[in-house]
TrEMBL record:
Annotated metabolic or biological route of this protein: Lipid metabolism; malonyl-CoA biosynthesis; malonyl-CoA from acetyl-CoA: step 1/1
Record bears the keyword Kinase: no
Example of a GO MF term: carboxyl- or carbamoyltransferase activity
Gene3D superfamilies: 2-enoyl-CoA Hydratase, Chain A, domain 1 (3.90.226.10)
Assigned EC number: 2.1.3.15
UniProt protein name: Acetyl-coenzyme A carboxylase carboxyl transferase subunit beta, chloroplastic
Cellular location(s): Plastid, Chloroplast stroma
Catalytic activity: N(6)-carboxybiotinyl-L-lysyl-[protein] + acetyl-CoA = N(6)-biotinyl-L-lysyl-[protein] + malonyl-CoA
GO biological processes: fatty acid biosynthetic process; malonyl-CoA biosynthetic process
Amino acid sequence: MSLKEWFEERRKISGSIEDLIERTSKDYIVNEMDKNKNIKIDFNNRLWVQCDNRENLLYMKYLRQNKSVCEECGYHLQMSSSDRIELSIDHGTWHPMDEDMAAPDPIQFHFEDEPHIDRITSCQIRTGLTDAVQTGIGRPNGIPIAIGVMDFQFMGGSMGSVVGEKITRLIEYATKQFLPVIMVCASGGARMQEGSFSLMQMAKISTALYIHQLEKKLLYVSILTYPTTGGVTASFGMLGDIIIAEPKAYIAFAGRRVIEQTLGQKVPDGLQVAEHLFDHGSFDLIVPRSLLKGVLSEPFQLYGLIPCEKERTLGLVSCNEQQFSSSAPRNESDNDTVPSHSENRKNQLQRIVPHLSFF
């Protein structure tokens, strides 16, 4: 190569570098971003997902067949509310409630880059939900119940005014229809973008549960999944007559980082994990996802044996009461007096489930 040819090649290289710098200028980047605005990536149709525990890749098809549980380590990955409803409810028995109730922007909250209402709209498009909870009536193993399932994919499952209203309406409907209630919790807590409106939902839901549980004597089961934190833990998440957690679920009020920054102390590993909290009596059971539907059917079957408040207020005698009266043993030492209804019920339940203790 001659000296002249070498200089010409250098000029070509320099010109290419100048063109590249010009193309990557601010105006060029803005124009390219405008062109790519219409490009949408559907994350729901991805083929692989990474395990949160061991970071190994899992084939999405097999993961769904295994109820979103890692086959290698047994770690329970997050599930969408629709997948969890399909897992918990008998096919064809799901009847949703308040599907069209959409999230408002009561305090006109704005992020630095976009308004809050735009972020809600993007979550609605991405998840296909109007807000972070689905509520409705269904039948697990043929037993009618009212169920609400929170979805962490919608703004971290945060509890705003719509979430609180839907859950409250579900509980009130279940109270009128004398149905048990199941709430599947997966939330980062109250939605800060709605200010005190979100905090008011804690009291509203708790009041509805007070009427449902204490005044009407109806059953409420709370299921805590990964993660359950903040205002959900501080309200209806921990108010269940039966509280069930999934293995390795993160359950807390304040997160680890907030505690460490506030108190200046390091939080021990595993302090806010389901197994540690279970050892300290925070809830009743830790149930793997594959067994959850069967485990839930047992208390509901027992609950169905007990005459409901509606039958007693109408002055009716249920078939269960008749069965208790006819099958209960008579006490010969008390001049053949008939045992009380509570004693008959206790004896009947003890024969049905002999391994349980009734006090």
